[in-house]
Design a protein that fits this description.
By secondary structure, the protein is α/β, with parallel strands linked by helices. The chain has helices at about 5-15, 20-25, 30-45, 55-65, 70-75, 100-110, 115-135, 155-160, 175-180, 200-210, 235-240, 260-265, 285-290, 310-315, 335, 345-355, 370-385, 405-420, 440-450, 465-475; strands spanning about 100, 140, 165-170, 190-195, 215-220, 225, 250-255, 255, 275-280, 300-305, 325, 365-370, 390-395, 430, 455-460, 480-484. The protein is globular, with a radius of gyration of 27 Å.
């Protein structure tokens, strides 16, 4: 194994790039492995699960590369540097780095000094060092930034190659104006909205991008606010001009009183090149609005607040590329069902359309009534959709209040259907709310599932925390069963 071709090793370690434990262990195997892993680890050294405030190793390595005169000046200011071996580093680590994470660097710098002014000096020198040394920057997380790094020497040469930017709306607009002059090829832009103030700089940054493929907006507001100005409008209007290149869109809005969210509903139909669309929380859509949202290339769709009839419009407008369809994400389904006309017919048609239009589906959420017709159609779906690996199921009867015995009966029928027809790729089943299986039905299911691939069952019902259920589940854990 240690003699594997370096190119093959590199490809293997690329697959493990998010697994710091495996990569760190691989460093110790031999010289070849170490030389192959180091560039991968240092490409984005901020991404791993490390408490950077308490770990001085990364701080010491970066500080080692500071010019001697700069370091001496900082020491005179009272800044402490961890001791470093007198031997030179085996690698020029910073030359492999392709990313800067302002927030993590700011936290790590507290190792050198607890004084705000000293930390400010350290930040400036660290940013200057990274901008100068990192040969080609691809990723920048500029949350908590308080230095206009685009004025640093060589900033233009480094930042113009930026592909991904993570920022928040509390950053002063002038920082975004500065970046907009240099960075015009950002492909992925992630915005954390932590203020209700309008940030014109972000809209400008969006406007100048030539190849914006992926856009995320995530509200992170502490509580409910009232705003006279719309903090979303200008950015959304700039975003719609990127309709020809935009492929992935994720929107998560919170409630801000005084703001109308109809603009997003009007703009979404214009973004008709989307391959993935995620809309979280409370944004509502009517059937007419979704009729105008025609995404022939859509592969992944996550939408929270949606009825079955509206979901049908999505399936009708797709062209068979859907691989992930997660609707009713927070599953306030009973709220929506109160307004759903002909729910039984619509949900039955929805399952049928999945079979017809989405044979390659891999991740799917279903909401249907426990009728014979629904179970029959559901079994057909399992037989057709052989790539299905994750299934979220909500079974509810809005026409009558079901007894506990009837709920158990529904659960037993569902488990029998899964045993008969579940595709071999199925690895995860999630059940919502008070969906229940009797101890006997669950045991029969687990016996018949034995010998198949490992399966995770996720449920929110506390019945499975009972002593008898826990004992039964533990008996099958060695077979790969995991019940959460």
């Amino acid at each position: 194994m240690s003699q594997l071709n370096k190119d093959i090793l590199f490809l293997l370690f690329e697959e493990l790039q998010a697994d710091s434990k495996s990569l760190f262990s691989s460093l110790l195997v031999n010289k070849l492995w170490c030389e192959t892993v180091i560039p991968i680890l240092w490409r984005d050294p901020w991404r791993y699960s490390i408490n950077y405030k308490n770990k001085s190793y990364l701080f010491a390595i970066i500080a080692y590369y500071l010019p001697v005169d700069i370091k001496e000046c900082l020491i005179i200011q009272g800044i402490n540097f961890p001791p470093f071996s007198y031997r030179s580093p085996l690698f020029n680590y910073l030359s492999f780095c392709r990313s800067i994470n302002i927030e993590i660097i700011n936290g790590m710098i507290t190792i050198g000094s607890s004084l705000a002014y000293n930390q400010f000096l350290l930040q400036q020198e660290f940013y200057n060092l990274l901008i100068t040394t990192c040969l080609e920057l691809k990723y920048l997380d500029m949350r908590s930034i308080n230095h206009q790094i685009f004025y640093l020497p060589e900033a233009k040469a480094r930042l113009e190659t930026l592909c991904e930017l993570n920022c928040n709306t509390s950053v002063d607009p002038t920082y975004f104006y500065g970046l907009a002059r240099i960075c015009q090829n950002i492909q992925k832009l992630i915005i954390i909205n932590n203020t209700i103030k309008v940030n014109h700089g972000i809209a400008k940054l969006v406007e100048v991008q030539e190849n914006l493929i992926n856009f995320e907006w995530n509200d992170d507001l502490d509580g409910f606010y009232y705003s006279m100005e719309d903090p979303y409008k200008e950015t959304l209007l700039a975003l719609v001009k990127k309709a020809d290149v935009l492929k992935h869109l994720k929107i998560s809005f919170e409630v801000v009183e005084g703001i109308e969210y109809t603009l997003l509903q009007e703009l979404l139909p214009k973004l008709n090149k989307l391959k993935s669309l995620t809309i979280d929380d409370f944004i509502f859509f009517t059937e007419n609005q979704f009729d105008m949202m025609v995404y022939h290339d859509i592969e992944m769709l996550y939408i929270d607040c949606i009825t079955v009839n509206v979901a049908l419009s999505i399936i009708e407008n797709s062209k068979g590329h859907l691989k992930e369809l997660l609707l009713f994400k927070f599953l306030d389904c009973y709220y929506f069902l109160d307004y759903e006309e002909n729910f039984n017919e619509a949900s039955l048609n929805f399952i049928h359309k999945i079979c017809e239009r989405c044979p390659s589906i891999e991740c799917l959420s279903l909401l249907f009534s426990p009728t014979i017709e629904h179970f029959t159609e559901f079994e057909k779906l399992l037989k057709v959709c052989q790539n299905l690996r994750s299934l979220l199921i909500v079974i509810t009867n809005i026409n009558e209040n079901e007894t506990f015995e009837k709920i158990l009966e529904n659960g037993e029928e569902l488990l029998r259907t899964l045993i008969r027809s579940a595709p071999i790729n199925l690895r995860e089943i999630r059940f919502f709310d008070d969906f229940k299986f009797s101890l006997q039905a669950l045991e029969e299911f687990l016996k018949k599932w034995r010998g198949r691939p490992a399966l995770s069952i996720l449920t929110s019902d506390h019945i499975y925390k009972g002593e008898d259920y826990i004992k039964l589940i533990n008996e099958y854990k060695n077979d790969g069963l995991n019940v959460l």
